[in-house]
Design a protein that fits this description.
two-stranded antiparallel ribbon, alpha+beta, globular, 20% helix, five-stranded antiparallel β-sheet
Length: 137
């Protein structure tokens, strides 16, 4: 199955796709990707003390299939939701500029789906669901 989508060239484009569900751009083939929940310890190992928030015009996660990952996450978890229910909130890059955390609000209090992106490979390594109202990290 193919779908219209915007090539993710900046955090602003991620926000646009997540908020509008609109994905003008090139056609890509949807393929099954590994949906992997990281343990809290694995997630913490991807963070650094001085993570830098990405600006809207940053192209660090240019070709990462974030929407496809979220769609498959929804299916795997059997959620009664769609991509439009997830709101983009942040993107942070670690000190080594190798890993990026992309935070999507799940619509419940302080609950976030945080995708961990391998910048060099332009892939999602996995995710962690965090409740920011509880001091987890």
């Amino acid at each position: 199955m193919e779908m219209q989508r915007l090539v993710l060239a900046s955090a602003a484009r991620v926000r646009y796709e997540m908020e509008t569900g609109n994905s003008p751009g090139r056609l890509i083939e949807r393929k099954k990707m590994a949906i992997r929940e990281l343990t809290l310890e694995e997630f913490e190992a991807t963070a650094s003390s001085n993570m830098k928030q990405l600006k809207e015009d940053d192209d660090t996660c240019a070709d990462v299939p974030l929407l496809e990952y979220v769609e498959q996450f929804i299916g795997k978890m059997q959620l009664q939701a769609d991509v439009d229910d997830f709101e983009f909130h942040f993107a942070y890059l670690n000190d080594e500029k190798q890993l990026c955390h992309v935070g999507l609000h799940l619509g419940e209090d302080e609950l976030y789906l945080v995708l961990v992106v391998d910048v060099a490979r332009q892939t999602v390594m996995g995710h962690c669901v965090l409740d920011f109202s509880k001091a987890q990290i």
